[in-house]
Structures are given as structure tokens and as C-alpha cells.
Amino acid sequence: MKFCLSVAALSFGSVAAFAPSAFTHNTMKAPASSSSLNMALPEGVTPIIIGVAADSGCGKSTFMRRLTNIFGGDVVGPLGGGFGAPGGWETNTLVSDLTTVICLDDYHLNDRNGRKVTGLTALNPLENNFDLMYEQVKALKEGKTVSKPIYNHVNGTLDTPETIEPTPIIIFEGLHPMHDDRVRDLLDFTLYLDISPDVKLNWKIQRDMEERGHSLESIMASIEARKPDFDAYIDPQKKLSDMIIEVLPTNLDKEDKKTLRVRCIQKEGVPDFAPCYLFDSGSTIEWTPSPEKLSSPAPGIKLMSGPEEYFGSKCQVVEMDGNFDNLQELVYIESALSNTKTKFYGELTQAMLALADAPGSNNGTGLMQTLAAFAIRDLYEKKSAQAAKAKKESTTAAAAA
Amino acid sequence: MKFCLSVAALSFGSVAAFAPSAFTHNTMKAPASSSSLNMALPEGVTPIIIGVAADSGCGKSTFMRRLTNIFGGDVVGPLGGGFGAPGGWETNTLVSDLTTVICLDDYHLNDRNGRKVTGLTALNPLENNFDLMYEQVKALKEGKTVSKPIYNHVNGTLDTPETIEPTPIIIFEGLHPMHDDRVRDLLDFTLYLDISPDVKLNWKIQRDMEERGHSLESIMASIEARKPDFDAYIDPQKKLSDMIIEVLPTNLDKEDKKTLRVRCIQKEGVPDFAPCYLFDSGSTIEWTPSPEKLSSPAPGIKLMSGPEEYFGSKCQVVEMDGNFDNLQELVYIESALSNTKTKFYGELTQAMLALADAPGSNNGTGLMQTLAAFAIRDLYEKKSAQAAKAKKESTTAAAAA
Fold first, then answer.
1. What is the per-residue pLDDT for A85?
2. What residues of chain B score a pLDDT lower than 70?
3. Which residues form the Phosphoribulokinase/uridine kinase domain (chains A, B) (predicted)?
4. For residue B362, which of B334, B315, B322 has the smallest C-alpha distance?
5. B285 contacts in chain A (CB < 8 Å)
6. Do residues A56 and A148 touch, judged by C-beta distance below 8 A?
């Protein structure tokens, strides 16, 4: 389970490019036993809690960058270790002015040695402390501060807990955000990153073989070893999610193993969430954009939008197959999308351009992650407005009494 | 060649429902030897000439009704015969305030007995007087009156000619409007109604077997007999047309032999003609409309729009497969169409509703014919505006000299 190192390291290292102040924290001497990440929660606002489920190496780190980019503010974590300092791991938590991203690996019940004793993988629910997770998600949702454990991905140890104060948006990302009913019921919005086996293998080959020098055999063996627990405990959460981002091989050319087809499956009937669609609500539309307005490398580009059933639930799907040549031209696709939850026409393209160097910015993974980020921002703003209204009404009622 | 009887009869009989004054003409005693159809051509305007090519029984009559419906004005022809008076055939020409529809069968070189001598079909160019056709199209285009022959479909005779005065829009419809280069060069816009063999057989069965009691064998034999000349002389004109309306069996259900898929193939680069498209210019779009906004009987409804090549020419295609349940809901499809050449949103639906009883009003034949009619109106208006501008400039220049 080296994933969270990679999440934090990538998130931190890359976000740093856009938030220079993060470097200060990186070199800052953090307290030895705990770190306190203080972000004030506005009065009367309780946090909105988002669950993001995915296996390791599924692009969660990039998604977190897209989220924090859209929510704004400087990124002030993770402190210490990670990028360039493998021995100095101190937290998995990423914080910006509005957002706290908590990695659920911190709720592992045993350290790496402990799992050697039980013989179970970290994907097994028995290796995760759902009671504590529930208590802390509940406390944070109520605006309370918690003392959260830290799973040290470098050493595989459980380190001294850190203090987490609630911010307006709290993301719980990891293997099991929707596994436990009690936790799931507290989540305001849930997202599952569903990477098809073919794509996952390609990504792991690229990361672990090309970048880290692992052998193809060891990568295949690792995937194979994880598969039973993944299928049993992680995969079923997608049925329970409000939004599923599916990443599949392209349909445009059966020989092409690199180009991606990405589907954003949006459940109907989720409170405060109106699904995004192309051109016309309720229609099924397959769209090959005008090559004069959008250039794309072989095998081209094709989008789709329409109602579907997903494990018995009514959904609205937006799909993009293929890559952009020029990210600026995304504004043309943006013009065909409705319910993007942007505040002005062009904001979607602007958000993608701000992270143009991030993986997936030239394809549907970047687009769908950015759409998800805007949806989460919109949910937060609706919830804040409702809280402000409720507070005003109760103040008025109290004054009248 | 009983087609033109059917054209005129249907056109007259049905249009009468919307233009009560036409009944007056129907019962009016026309001069025995010739009829004069007087419609003044506005000063400075030369007629716009439209060629419409198609085999018999291909829906030309309905198309003419859609045209005259959109161009407005009372219909004042054909006089005499036709509907309910098979022996009284006197003209094939249909006239409204703006439009004259001339049937090219009137340029047959020989009467029915003459063709028995030559042993040629009326589809053979040798049986048609293209020299006279050219002279008269040219004269009409120059605003001159002509004395046009009449082919009597009932008797198969060539009757005493009738006087035709030019109206602002003149439609030449029949088997060979684009066959002769000289005639074709005079046409401002050309349209080909391309009915696929399967559909044509179905239509002939419906008309000739179910309505007229012919045997299936005789219908098949008649189609078979016409096929070589049709393929040699009629079909090649579609390559030369500005717009082709293709009528094909549905793709939605291979077992369904009645539902139609209709394609409007619009050439790029035709002067004063901007092709119609769905949602976005230059894109290829397949659209299954929201069933909540448009109800349709089995096998459903699907539209398509996009650029294509047609015999080496760049085209923009709009396609509709399937039927409407409720013609009122066409306004939803209209909302997705651009370059319809309507003057207000809803005019397309209104035009379809005005002829709701006409064949094809619940499917793509009606839709594409109506789109073609609006395109022709638009061409006429552009040409009139250009003529008015040119006249004003020459007046100004003359005054200045």
C-alpha cells in the first residue's frame, strides 16, 4: 500500500507549483508527535462530507489537485515527508483553505507487521477500524475536532495521531468510504473512480515498471493477489455511489491500448445534484465534434450523453472517448454541456487549463474529474446557503419569541 | 404514367381543404382548348426555377402541397379534370399566387400510341422534347409567357397547349429536370426524391394493389420493366442535385418494413443555401430524443446530422428514422435544428401541422420535404432581395448619369 505516499507526494509536489507557500510547510519543522492543521469552519456551517472510493493508482491524487484548484486557497499539507523525503512521512492529510482531504488508510487497524500476523490484506474490512472512522466522520460533520491516527506508508507503521479540525469541505478518500453503512449515511456525496482492469494494468505498468523498475510479472502478480479482496470489498461500493467515473479503453480503435473512454455516471435523484448532460436533457446523443472546431489526435474524439440504468438506478451518463490536441478548444465542448455547475461559460476550460500538466488533462479523465469537482463545489454552496437561511430563520424566530 | 393525374388530383383535392376558393375553379368551365393561368410576376423579379426529379409514386404530389402551403396563396389549378372527373383532364400545371408547378410529362415527344411505335418508355430521353423544354424554361426564366404542351395522362394524348405566364417561383417536376445540361444550368436549385427499391415496392403495393386492385405480379413486372431505363436516365440525376431526399427502410428494427428512415442530403457550396443541421454545425450527431419530450410508436425515433461525401461532393446530412406519435411535439425537434430558414421558432411545426393529414406528416418524409420547401422559399427571397437591390442601384446610377 504505497499509494497514499504517491497521492500525497504527487499532490503536494505538483500543487506546490501553483501554491508556492506550500514549500514553507514542506521545510517547516513540524511538532514531533502531532501536527495541527487549522482551518476555521465558518460559523453556522457544518462540513459537507464527500466520499471518494478507488483502488490505489487510480488517479485520486490528480482528482484531489483538481478539487483543491477549483475550491481555491493555498494548500498547506501534507507536512514533512513525501516528496523527496521518504523517511519523513508525517501525515496523509491534504488541506486547503476550504478543503481537508483525509486518506482512509489512516484507519487501518493494524500496521504492516500486524497484517503479516493476521494474513489479511488492507483491502479486507477486518483490517480497517470502521468504528473509529464512523466516530470521527460524525464528529467532523458536527464541527468537532478529532485526533486521527496516521498510517505511515513508508514504514507501514501507525504513528502518533494528528489533530484534524473541520473545514467546510472534507473529502474521505480511500478504499472503503462507502463500505460501512454508518459512515456512508454521513456522506453528502459519493464518488467512485472505476478503472477497468485493462487500463489499471497499463497505468501500473507505466508507474511501477517504467518509473520504478518493477517487473511485469511482479505487477501482474500484485494485481492478481489483490483481486479477490478488491472484488469482494472495494468494487461493490460503486453501486452505492452518487457518481461513478469509469475509465475504459477506447472504442474508437480496437488496436489502441492507450486512448481512454471515460464515462461519468451520475445518479438521478441525489439531493441538490442535477446531472450534467450534452445538448439536451433526457436525450441520448452521440457526438463527434466538428474537426474544424476541435482537433484531436488519432483515433479521434467522440462524446456521448444520455439516460442509462446502473445496477437498477436511473442515471445520466456523459462520456468522452479520445484525446484533445489543444486544451483551449475544450471551451467548444463546454458550450455543449449543461449543468456543469460552473459560474460562467469558460470556467470548466479555465479549470482544466490551470492544471494542463496534470495527468489526463487532454482526455476524459480530466474532464470528468473537473465536472465532479464543480458538482462538489455546487453542493457545498447549496448546503452553505441552506445553513445560512436556517440560521437566519432561527435568529428571527428567537427574536420574535 | 398515371402519376401526374395522381399528383394533380391529390394536390388539388387536398389543398382545397385549406383553400376553399379552389373549389370555384374546379367547377368553373374552362376554355375548351387552352387555359390561361395568370399570375403576375412582380416588376424587376425574374422567376426562380426549381427542378424536382423523381420517379412516379415518390411523393412529389405531397411535396408540392407542402411547397404551396408554405409559399401561401390560393391554389388555382389544375383546372377541369383530375379529382372525380377522370375524363376531363385539361392541365398538369398547379398554380398558386407565387408558384407554378409544371409537370415535365408535358414535354413527352410522342403520345402513348407514338411510344407503342417507337417501343421506348417515357423514361427514355428520346421520348422527351428537351429542345422545347430548354426553350420554355429559358423563356419563363426571362419573364416571358410560353405556350406549353399538355400530356393527357388519362387518354395518353398530347392535347392543345396551354399558356403559362411566369410566377416568382416555377417548379419543374418530373422524370428529367436535370438530364439536359442546358435545362439544368437554368435551374436555381435542384432536388431529387430518392426512394429506395424496397420502399418504392411497398408504396406501389399500397397504392396499386390495395387501392387499385392490381396484382403483386403486375406491380413487380412493371417495376422490373422500368428498371433499366430508370437506372440509365433518372437515377444519375441525383449526383447532380443540390438536395437529395433519400427514403429508406428503418434501421431501428430489421423486421419492420413500414417505418422509414429519411435522409436530407444537402450539398455544400450551393449559392444562397446554407444546409440545415442538428445542434452543432460540422459535428456528427446521433440523437435519440428524450421520450419524455417526444413520444413515438415502436420502433422508436432517432435522428442524425453530420457532414458526409455524396458522389464526391461535400454534403451536410440530416436524417430522421421512425415516426412521431404527436405532430405537435415536432416543435422539440425544431428546437434542435439550425438553418431551417423559418422566420420564427415554431414555423416548421406549424407548416407540418397545416398538412397533418398528408402522407408522411408523422415521419421524416414530411419533415425533409418541409425543410426543402423552406429552403426554396429562402432562396426565392434572397434572389428577390438581390434583384430589388440591383434595380435600386441601376436606378440610382441612371439618375446620377
1. 36
2. 1-40, 42-44, 72-90
3. 49-251
4. B322
5. 279, 285-288
6. no
Are the beta carbons of B56 and B10 closer than 8 angstroms? no
A→B contacts (Cβ < 8 Å), by residue, are 279-293, 306, 336
Contact indicator for B209, B218 with CB cutoff of 8 Å: no
Q: What is the mean pLDDT of residues A103-129?
A: 94
Contact A148, A133 (CB under 8 A): no
Q: Per residue in A262-275, pLDDT tens?
A: 999 999 999 999 99
How many separate helices (H) and strands (E) can be counted in chain A?
A: 11, 15
Alpha-carbon gap: A306 to the closest alpha carbon of chain B (Å)? 9
Partners of A308 on chain B (C-beta within 8 Å) are none
Q: Residue B97: which H helix or E strand, with range? A: none
- Average pLDDT estimate for A64-85: 60
- Cα pseudo-dihedral B347, B348, B351, B352, rounded to 10: -140
B201: enclosing H helix or E strand: helix B197-204
Residue A15 has pLDDT above 60, yes or no: no
Min Cα distance A284 → chain B (Å) is 5
Cell 379552389 locates to B22
Count CA atoms closer than 13 A to A286's CA, side-chain side: 10
The pLDDT of residue A17 is above 90? no
User: Could you tell me which residues come within 8 angstroms of residue A396 by beta carbon, excluding any fewer than 6 positions away?
Assistant: none
| CA-CA-CA-CA torsion sign (B249, B251, B252, B255) | positive
Q: How far, in Å, CA of B57 to CA of B67, rounded?
A: 17
Classified as helix, coil or strand, B194 is strand
Mean predicted lDDT score pLDDT of chain A? 84
From the list B191, B159, B195, the residue with the least C-alpha distance to B178 is: B191
When mean pLDDT is compared over A23-27, A58-62, A307-311, B225-229, the highest value belongs to A307-311
3-state SS assignment for residue B384: helix
The dihedrals phi and psi of B301, each to the nearest 5 degrees, come to -145, 140
Q: How far is CA A202 from the centre of its chain?
A: 20
